[in-house]
């Protein structure tokens, strides 16, 4: 289902990505090995690949993706998907120039606040690579609790060709 929703906070604005965002997304997010290190996808090979992802993969099926804007600039991405009818899983990434400023915590908090109005959502989860302290901090600041370390749970192709350990965070929202 297409995402048309805009969420806004004091520092960030979340809006659906459009094809015109491809160059900025490629330059700041999709081509940066620092950003993609702990993601499930490899850096894009060019703007054309980013354009293709925007038009074919974002906001398809049960996933909603937002572009994170800071001062009108492309700063990151965040998404949520429904692995089960009653649960939502969150994911996100942010360009390094905006790390350490609480921006992704604000973006995730906006997604969580929006979910509270959905009576069909009972649980929210997110996981991050076990070594990704920054992401774990975002999830803790947003009120998710560490539920455990899952051994060899997810692929991070920019780290290894073998499954890696993750930290699983969760929260009941009703």
Automatic annotation (TrEMBL):
<dbReference type="Pfam" id="PF13302">
    <property type="entry name" value="Acetyltransf_3"/>
</dbReference>
<feature type="domain" description="N-acetyltransferase">
    <location>
        <begin position="12"/>
        <end position="174"/>
    </location>
</feature>
<protein>
    <submittedName>
        <fullName>GNAT family N-acetyltransferase</fullName>
    </submittedName>
</protein>
<keyword id="KW-0808">Transferase</keyword>
<dbReference type="InterPro" id="IPR016181">
    <property type="entry name" value="Acyl_CoA_acyltransferase"/>
</dbReference>
<dbReference type="GO" id="GO:0016747">
    <property type="term" value="F:acyltransferase activity, transferring groups other than amino-acyl groups"/>
</dbReference>
<dbReference type="InterPro" id="IPR000182">
    <property type="entry name" value="GNAT_dom"/>
</dbReference>
<dbReference type="InterPro" id="IPR051531">
    <property type="entry name" value="N-acetyltransferase"/>
</dbReference>
């Amino acid at each position: 289902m297409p995402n048309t929703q805009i969420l806004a906070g004091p520092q960030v604005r979340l809006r659906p990505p459009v094809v015109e965002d491809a160059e900025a997304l490629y330059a700041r997010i999709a081509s940066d090995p620092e950003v993609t290190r702990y993601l499930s996808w490899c850096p894009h090979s060019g703007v054309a690949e980013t354009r293709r992802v925007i038009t074919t993969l974002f906001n398809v099926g049960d996933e909603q993706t937002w572009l994170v804007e800071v001062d009108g600039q492309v700063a990151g991405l965040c998404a949520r998907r429904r692995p089960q009818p009653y649960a939502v899983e969150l994911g996100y990434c942010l360009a390094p120039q905006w790390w350490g400023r609480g921006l992704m915590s604000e973006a995730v908090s906006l997604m969580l606040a929006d979910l509270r109005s959905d009576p069909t959502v009972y649980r929210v989860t997110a996981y991050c690579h076990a070594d990704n302290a920054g992401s774990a901090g975002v999830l803790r600041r947003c009120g998710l609790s560490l539920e455990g370390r899952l051994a060899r749970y997810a692929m991070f192709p920019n780290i290894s060709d073998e499954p890696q350990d993750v930290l699983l965070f969760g929260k009941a929202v009703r």
